[in-house]
Amino acid sequence: MLTSAILQAINGVSLAALLFLLASGFTLSFGLMRVVNMAHGAYYLLGGYIGLSVAQKTGSFALAIVAGGAAIAVLGYFIDHFLIRRTGENHLAQVLLTVGVAFVLGDVALAIWGGDNLMVPAPKFLKGSVVLPGDVYYPMYRLVMIFFGVFVGVVLWLLYKKTQIGAVVRAGVDDREQVNATGINVDLLFVMVSALASFLAGMAGVVGGAFLTLYPGAEWEILVYALVVVIVGGLGSLGGAMIGALVVGLLDAYGRWLLPEFSYFVLFGPIALLMLFRPRGLFGKEH
Amino acid sequence: MAEALLSVRGIHTYYGDSYVLQGLSLEQRAGTIVAILGRNGMGKTTLIRSVAGLTPPREGEIHFKGASLRGRPPYAIAQSGIALVPQGRRIFRSLSVRENLLLPTSGLARPGKGRWNLRAVLDEFPQLEERIAHMGGSLSGGEQQMLAVGRALMSNPDLILMDEPSEGLAPKLVKHVGEIMKSMRDHGHAVLLVEQNFALAMSVADYIYVVSAGRFVFEGTPQQLEREPEILDQHLGVARAH
Description:
The structure holds two protein chains of two kinds. Chain A has one domain (about 1-275): ABC transporter involved in vitamin B12 uptake, BtuC, CATH 1.10.3470. In chain A, strands 1-2 form a two-stranded antiparallel sheet. In chain A, strand 1 and strand 2 (about 135-140) form a beta hairpin. Chain A has helices at about 1-35, 40-60, 60-80, 90-115, 140-160, 165-175, 175-180, 185-210, 220-235, 240-260, 265-275; strands at about 130, 135-140. The mean pLDDT of chain A is about 90. Helix content of chain A is about 75%, strand content about 5%. By secondary structure, chain B is an alpha/beta fold. Chain B folds into two domains: about 1-80 and about 160-240, Rossmann fold, CATH 3.40.50; about 95-155, no CATH class. Chain B is built from ten helices and ten strands. The model of chain B has no long low-confidence stretch (mean pLDDT about 90). The interface between A and B is medium-sized, with 21 and 30 residues.
């Protein structure tokens, strides 16, 4: 019993690490650009597929991660520049547009990679299990992923809180117009943050594809989780995305274990309650 | 007459659907303080926003240092040497005082060169140095005003646009704001000031325009304005009481 509880905790944290990769970009781009990009799940899936092909061709997992991220960063730029930009601040139009983009990307992926469950091949040294204290066997890959998530989180946090470019982004979240009047090209800033968000989503697809596998429809499953993460954490808050990912990852893991018939309820019930009493999320600011 | 630093020629500006500025023209030379006086809702803020490029005029021309600002985005106008101290200060709340001050010097902003840097601004406003690590959102109104001016100075601008700097400040601080503006002028910066506070504008300005319903109804020196009781009563009546 205790062993299972520990196991589920690690499961939850490793899912949280993956969700954080996806949600951090989503929350940053909403905070700065007020863009709701529902294609984020499709970015994840497509990034995963691209990483899969690169991994199969080159045999390098690291290269797959970088390629998946970079390809989606480029794709995200074009979708941003030619499509989303036209919606201005109309969130309803953004949601409709980006849901449409997600369907198109999903179909393109289906045409190229087919409808089977595919798994990104993880490198040899990440396969197999580790024995944790208390004789708990745990997949090496998921354990390493936790460290990877923490690593990315720390890098993002340092970038956001400690560098000048991070200060510019935070200022943009506070007051875009005044940043513009301070002599900073806000559009250029948007492009950079948007590219980073897309990169993170594509990278998350490769990382997630190595244990959750890739299949048509995975983009919507992961999107729902990512949305819950950013809503719980508060839109626009990086720290909120970390906490939100942990909450969602743990609720999901324990829900599946203790109440498998009600696992979605265990996840969404508490969140519905949170929304009733704190609609802006745990760390969100009022707009 | 010397070439004007700022020259606004017959601008018409709309704010949303409302027709706010109905053909304004003004000239400002380098190193002077020009004040725009007028009651609330007469278009003062819109004039500042027109110059800063935040609400560009639909008709008319604005020239700065001889070049037209037409079609230029706000950041490009700021980079050409115009800094904005906006109404309500608009300090970046989640940035520290230091980060607020350094923002205009980031690589993305291409700041001008001149005497102002972090050291010089902190020497000018020692109170800010005590609060250097505090978040912008935690400062008092007076401190925020100093920070807003300091932030504007960091880009070493030729022209500082000040929108209602006295708003919400205690009388003693209003006086201080006046001294700050004179000191800016002594350092060679021109200040375009928009104010409701009659006494403040009269005490610092070299030249005054009075705006009413989107048009200028007076222009001249503070001494000339003093001799126009009708203008004072009709267009500034309430504001004078401050």
